[in-house]
Amino acid sequence: MSKLCISTRGIGSWRERLADPDRQWRRRFSAFETAVSWEFASLGESGIPEPIGRLFRECNYGDPILVLAVAEHKVNLPGGVAASQSDVWAVVKTTAGMLSLTVEGKANEAFGDEIVKKWLVAGKTKESCDNRKSRFEHILSHLPKSDSFLQVRYQLLHRCAASVIEAKRLGFQHAAFVVQAFNTPDERFQDYAVFCQALKLPAVRGSMETTCLDGISLSVGWADCPLATDAEVATSV
After folding, report:
1. What is the mean pLDDT of each run of 10 residues along the chain (237 residues)?
2. 195 Cβ contact partners less than 8 Å away, ≥ 6 residues apart
3. Which spans in the chain are helix H?
4. What is the C-alpha to C-alpha distance for residues 169 and 164, in angstroms, rounded to an integer?
C-alpha cells in the first residue's frame, strides 16, 4: 500500500476512500459524521474534535495538537490480504510526547459481527482458520497480556493494536485508541466495556484510561460527540 498521502478537499475526499460509499455515506452514519467532525475541527487551533481533545486533557496529556491525520488509514496485518482500516489515524503532539491515535467512529453500527472466539473458527477452510490464528497472534503481540480477549469484538482489538503498531513503527512511546460515538446505542458501549475489562481498565463514557506494554503507554477512551449541524456540514464540504 502507498505511504503517500494527499490533503483532503473537504468531506468528499473521505467518501472516496470508503469501501462501500453508497451504503456508508449518509448523515447520522459514522463515516459521514466522523468526516464532518474532523474536517470542521481542522479549522480550530488544536485540529482535534473537542470531545476527543477533552479526553487527552483529562488524561494528563495537556492540550493535544494535531500534527497530521489520515482518513481510512490502513495497517497491514499478517494472515490475509485485508488490512486494519481505521476511520482516522492521527499523529498527535502532547506534553508527554508524540502519540499515535486510531479512532473508530461509531453510530448505530455494530463493532463488526463477531467476538474473537467465533471469528477464529469462522474460516471456511483450514488455511483460512490458520490465517486467522496467525493474525490474532500478531494482534496479541501488540496488546497488553490478557486471558479475556476471546470474548471481545474482533474489530475493537485490531483497531487498538493498529495504533500500537504505528507507534512502534514511528518510534513513539505513546499510543491511543478512541471510540468516537455519535448517538450510539448503549449495547455498543457494553461491547466497549467488555474490551476495557479484558485490558483491566475501567470503561467510562467521556474518559480515557491508560495501561502499558513494551515501554509504550496505551490509552483507551470513549468520546460521545454530537451529530453534525447543517452549518458544520456546509463548512466541511
Report:
1. 85 94 95 98 97 97 98 91 93 98 96 92 92 96 96 97 98 99 97 98 98 96 98 96
2. 152, 153, 156, 157, 160, 203, 220
3. 11-15, 21-24, 30-41, 50-58, 116-120, 126-140, 154-170, 186-198, 230-236
4. 9
Helix (H) or strand (E) holding 67: strand 65-75
pLDDT the model gives residue 1: 59
- C-alpha 119/C-alpha 188 separation (Å) is 18
User: What sign results for the dihedral spanned by CA atoms 135, 144, 155, 40?
Assistant: negative
* Cα 92-189-220 angle, rounded to 5 deg: 25
Asked whether the beta carbons of 174 and 98 are under 8 A apart, the reply is yes
pLDDT of 186: 96
What is the rounded distance in angstroms from the CA atom of residue 12 to the CA atom of residue 8?
A: 8
pLDDT at residue number 82: 86
Task: Say whether 95 sits in a helix, a strand or coil.
Answer: coil
Place of cell 476527543: 52
Amino acid at the residue 46: S
CA angle 102/220/108 to nearest 5° reads: 70
User: Is the CB of residue 51 less than 8 Å from the CB of residue 224?
Assistant: yes
